[in-house]
Design a protein that fits this description.
alpha/beta; 215 residues; 8 helices; TIM Barrel; two-stranded antiparallel sheet; 8-stranded parallel barrel
Amino acid sequence: MNDILINGIYDLRTLKSLQSEGIKNYSFDFNPKSQTFIQEHIFINLLNNIASNEFIFLRFKNNEDYFIYRVLETIKKSGISPLQFCFIFEEVTPSIDQFHNSFMTYYQPANVKILNSCINLRGLIFNLKELELLFTNNTINNFYNNLFLVFNNFVHFNNCIDISWNDSIVSSINDLFEFNYYIFSISSHIEICYRNVNLIKLKNEINFIKKDLTL
């Protein structure tokens, strides 16, 4: 499986537009310092518009544990299946597995030892620029082989790439990692102004991405 995941959705009109374009993976950002931070009451309202064949990803950074537990309870009460949602942690701590919920996180060499012992880890997110540097230095194959010797025992493990709207992936990187998710974030690139998505541009960008990635 390889699919588009849109991060940073903060209103219903953007969610509806994405749904009309056939996107089925949505990420909501609870980092209070993020430009795409979503308020809890708005998120609860958006949950009512998630179909049974769609998936949500909850992004956390600078959040207290009690808040994460509260969001988890909200989702459970909404009736959304546990198979429909996954956490994305931008910070890794020794207690990251405590929520007993599937999660993905950004790759950092210092975190490999902790993550290798996490039974709920479901994937790693890579930054395109970092992979391009490895490719330029002709070390990307060694990097890939060494990394997945560590994580080869994980079931349903996802490789994900965090990519900007106007970037392209070198085909050999794409072929090597076989990314499950291509993560694009709501940003000024597709906004008319602050927190106001240009829905026409969003549609055009998604159609271009689908053709570029042959999804």
